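Query structure, 189 tokens:
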């Protein structure tokens, strides 16, 4: 019986899944190789081979510049619940999505009226990456956007959830504590 790939398949996840399957295969066949697990996984997803599965996933992720998250968004401060540590006056965020690579450019005007601009890069593959000063981030796709888990010196410090509405006009950025909810509207240019 064939399984269906998720709407946004992730090649790194499939590689990990194949390695996990290899462990299972080796219990019954100690000489099993990674290629055997990849082949079995490919067949399970309805593909004739690992290269065909991989090519299919890469073709999907290569066409993500039109990803629902991509584009410019402007904060609706009245509908947002700003965190006490970040009572911004205004915000604009631009997402560039290419495959599992997301670049984020943000512009904020803080409570004193001082503008700040930042740029961040996320590899959305679930792999934890060091970003400096003892921090690391692991980002993964969700059904309507992405989530990013931040750690400081190995300890969880927060989770941001980026969710695009079904009509793709609204983006919400929330934290798991409920202390912050930023509502943004798509900027049509």
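Result returned for the query:
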């Amino acid at each position: 019986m064939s399984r269906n790939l998720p709407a946004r398949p992730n090649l790194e996840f499939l590689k990990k899944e194949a390695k996990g399957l290899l462990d299972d295969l080796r219990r019954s066949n100690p000489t099993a190789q990674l290629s055997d697990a990849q082949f079995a996984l490919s067949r399970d997803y309805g593909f004739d081979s690992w290269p065909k599965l991989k090519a299919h996933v890469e073709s999907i992720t290569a066409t993500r510049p039109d990803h629902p998250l991509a584009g410019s968004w402007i904060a609706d401060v009245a509908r947002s619940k700003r965190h006490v540590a970040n009572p911004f006056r205004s915000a604009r965020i631009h997402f560039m999505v290419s495959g599992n690579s997301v670049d984020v450019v943000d512009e904020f005007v803080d409570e004193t009226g001082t503008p700040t601009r930042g740029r961040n890069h996320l590899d959305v593959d679930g792999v934890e990456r060091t970003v400096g000063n003892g921090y690391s981030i692991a980002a993964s796709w969700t059904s309507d956007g992405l989530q990013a888990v931040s750690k400081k010196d190995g300890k969880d410090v927060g989770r941001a959830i980026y969710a695009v509405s079904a009509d793709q006009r609204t983006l919400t950025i929330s934290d798991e504590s409920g202390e912050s909810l930023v509502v943004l509207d798509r900027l049509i240019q």
